[in-house]
Write a structure and sequence with these properties.
Length: 572
C-alpha cells in the first residue's frame, strides 16, 4: 500500500473519532500520524519490509506502528472498522468540503441524518441547513459553492499522489527488466499538471504478451478492463485508471512526444509538420511512407525546426512560436534553490523546533531558511502578538548565531486583515528580516474590496512577499477574486515578491499567473510553507509550477546566495 492510502485510513480514524466526540489527544495523534505518512519520501511499506522500526518516524508511536503493520497485511485495522460501524458508510466524504469539519458533520447527521454529498446538496438547496446550531444562510451558500468545487475535481488526484503511484508502479516495472526494456509515464503527469485524471505509461517490451502478464501481477492493480496487442487498460485499487501503451524502440520518442503534450500542443506541432510536407503521429515523423524521426523526442522537434520544448511547457501557450524563434526560456531547476522562505515551528502551528527546522534545511544543502510563524489573528494556529513575536525573533536569531555558514532569518507570516491593515504594527514588522503577508479570512469579499485590501497590504512598506496570493485550496476552496494587474502592479512598485507555495493542496501562485508576473517584471520566491522538517521536501512541487510558468533562475529570489539574497531584500 502507498503512504497516501495508509494516511487516508489514519485521517479517517481521526475524523470518525471526532464526529463521535472522542478523545481530543487521540484525534490529534491520528492526524499527526497521517501527516507524517503523507509527507514521507520513503514508502513505509518498504521500511516495514526491511524490518526497520516504524516508531522511529515522527508522530508514530507503538500503537500507530501496530496499526500500520495491520493495514499493510489486511488493508484495514480493527480500530478503524470499530469506528466505521458506529456511523453510516461514506459519511467522512462530507469533510471534503471546505468549512465542513467533524463538528458540523456530527450536527448534520444527528439533526438531519445527512451522510452523503447528495443529501447535503438537497438539504442546502431546500434551506434546511440554516436552522442548525452554528449554521446560517451563508453556511448553505458556502456548502453549495464547495460542492461545485469538489465536483469539478471528481476523478482527479493531486500531482503529489500521482508521484507516489508512479513510484510504486515504477519500482515494480523495474523488476521486470527481462521483459520490459523501458517504461515512461507521459500525459499530464509528465507535464506536472497540478491534478491528474489518469496515467499513460509507455512500454517498450521484448514480448508484449509476457509484458501484459507481468503488468497484471502488480499488487496495486484492481482489474484489467481492456487487453490488446497495442494497449492495456487497467484500474488501480481505488479506481484510478492507467493505460499501458506498447511501442517499439524506433517509435518510442514519437510516442512520448505525442502522448506528453496537451491536445493543443500536439495540434500546433502537427500543423508545422504539414507545412513542411510531413506527417506527425505517435509512430514517428514521416515524409510519405519514410520515417525521418521517431526514436527520440529531440529529433522530432529538430526536424520540425523547433528548439526542444520541455514537457512542462507543452500547453500551447506560445511555446511553439518561442521554440521556432529560438526564444524558449532556460527553465529553473530544483538544484537552483538556495533556501526556503516560509517555515513554521512549534511556536504556532508547526511540529518542530527552530533548531530542527534549521538543521533540516542545512541537510538539504540550503544556505538559508526563514522562520515565519503566524500572527495573532490566526487564533486556530496560536498566532503571536507583538510581545511573543519579539521574544520569538530573539530566539530565532540566537539559534542562527550558532550556525556556521547558514543564515537563519527571523520572519513572520502576518495576516492581511479585512480592510487591508496588517495584523501587527508595521514598526514591529520592520524589525524582522522577512515578512510574508497572507489572506487567511474573509475569502468571499467582492473583487473590488479584495483588490483594495491586498494592494493596501503590499503598499505598507513592511512586506517582502505576498503569500499564497490566491488563497486557494485545490479541489476544496476556490481562488480569491481580485484585479490581478492592479495587485501585481502594486507588488512591482513596492518590491514585493509573489510566493509560489509548494504545498500540493495550494500550488499557489498558479502557473499561468507566474507567466503573467514574469512579463510584468516581478520577482517570485518558491517556498514550502513547511510545518515540519519533512515538509521541506515539497519544494519540488513549487519548482514544477515555476517551470510550467516559464520561470528561469533569475526570476526567483531564493536562487540567490545568502549574501545576494540579503542584499536583494534590504529596505532603504
Amino acid at each position: 500500500m502507498r503512504n497516501s492510502e495508509i494516511a487516508a485510513l489514519f485521517r479517517e480514524m481521526a475524523n470518525l473519532l471526532e464526529i463521535q466526540g472522542g478523545d481530543a489527544f487521540r484525534i490529534r495523534s491520528y492526524e499527526q500520524a497521517a501527516r507524517t505518512l503523507e509527507e514521507m519520501t520513503e514508502q513505509v511499506a518498504l521500511l516495514a519490509g526491511e524490518g526497520k522500526k516504524l516508531t522511529d518516524l515522527p508522530g508514530i508511536g507503538k500503537s500507530h506502528a501496530e496499526k500500520i503493520e495491520e493495514i499493510l497485511k489486511t488493508g484495514t485495522c480493527a480500530r478503524l472498522e470499530e469506528l466505521r460501524k458506529a456511523l453510516p458508510p461514506g459519511i467522512t466524504e462530507l469533510l471534503r468540503l471546505k468549512g465542513v469539519g467533524p463538528k458540523k458533520v456530527k450536527v448534520l447527521w444527528e439533526r438531519l441524518k445527512i451522510s452523503t454529498l447528495e443529501q447535503l446538496k438537497a438539504a442546502a438547496e431546500a434551506g434546511k441547513i440554516r436552522g442548525l446550531p452554528g449554521m446560517g444562510e451563508k453556511t448553505e451558500e458556502h456548502i453549495l459553492k464547495s460542492l461545485k468545487t469538489v465536483a469539478a475535481q471528481a476523478g482527479r488526484i493531486s500531482i503529489h499522489e500521482a508521484v507516489e503511484i508512479v513510484g510504486e508502479l515504477g519500482r515494480y516495472l523495474d523488476l521486470q527488466k527481462k521483459i520490459i526494456k523501458r517504461w515512461t509515464v507521459a500525459g499530464s503527469f509528465r507535464r506536472r499538471v497540478e491534478t491528474v485524471g489518469d496515467l499513460d505509461v509507455l512500454i517498450e517490451a521484448a514480448d508484449r504478451a509476457a509484458a501484459t502478464e507481468a503488468i497484471g501481477g502488480f499488487a496495486g492493480l484492481a482489474e484489467i478492463t481492456e487487453r490488446g496487442p497495442e494497449k492495456l487498460e487497467a484500474a488501480l485499487k481505488g479506481g484510478f485508471q492507467v493505460d499501458f501503451r506498447f511501442f517499439e524502440a524506433e517509435n518510442f520518442g514519437a510516442a512520448l512526444q505525442y502522448f506528453t503534450g496537451s491536445k493543443a500542443h500536439g495540434i500546433a506541432c502537427r500543423k508545422i509538420a504539414q507545412q513542411k510536407k510531413l506527417k506527425l503521429n505517435e509512430y514517428g515523423l514521416f515524409r510519405g511512407e519514410k520515417s525521418v524521426a521517431g526514436r527520440n523526442e529531440e529529433e522530432i522537434y529538430e526536424k520540425l525546426g523547433l528548439e526542444f520544448v520541455p514537457p512542462e511547457l507543452r500547453e500551447d501557450r506560445g511555446e511553439v512560436e518561442a521554440a521556432a524563434a529560438g526564444k524558449l526560456p532556460e527553465l529553473i531547476e530544483l538544484a537552483d534553490i538556495r533556501g526556503d522562505l516560509h517555515a513554521h515551528t512549534k511556536e504556532t502551528d508547526g511540529h518542530d523546533t527552530i533548531a530542527a527546522m534549521a538543521e533540516a534545511a542545512r541537510q538539504r544543502g540550503y544556505q538559508y531558511l526563514a522562520i515565519t510563524d503566524h500572527s495573532q489573528s490566526l487564533t486556530v494556529a496560536r498566532g503571536m502578538d507583538e510581545k511573543r513575536l519579539d521574544k520569538h525573533a530573539e530566539a530565532v536569531r540566537k539559534v542562527g548565531a550558532g550556525l556556521k555558514d547558514f543564515m537563519l532569518l527571523a520572519g513572520i507570516e502576518v495576516d492581511i486583515l479585512k480592510d487591508g491593515r496588517l495584523d501587527l504594527a508595521e514598526s514591529a514588522l520592520k524589525e524582522l528580516d522577512w515578512v510574508i503577508a497572507s489572506v487567511h479570512s474573509y475569502f468571499e469579499q467582492s473583487e473590488a474590496a479584495m483588490t483594495e485590501r491586498i494592494v493596501r497590504a503590499v503598499s505598507s512598506g513592511a512586506v517582502h512577499c505576498l503569500g499564497h496570493p490566491f488563497g486557494r485550496l485545490i479541489g476544496q476552496r476556490d481562488p480569491l477574486v481580485f484585479d490581478v494587474d492592479k495587485v501585481f502592479a502594486a507588488c512591482k512598485k513596492h518590491s514585493v515578491a509573489l510566493e509560489i507555495n509548494s504545498h500540493p493542496d495550494r500550488l499557489d501562485l498558479p502557473d499561468v499567473y507566474c507567466q503573467r508576473a514574469k512579463e510584468m517584471g516581478l520577482k517570485m520566491v518558491i517556498s514550502t510553507d513547511a510545518h515540519r522538517t519533512l515538509d521541506l521536501g515539497l519544494i519540488e512541487h513549487g519548482v514544477w509550477v515555476a517551470r510550467r510558468g516559464w520561470l528561469s533562475k533569475s526570476d526567483v529570489l531564493n536562487t540567490a546566495t545568502a549574501a545576494a539574497f540579503r542584499k536583494a531584500i534590504a529596505r532603504s
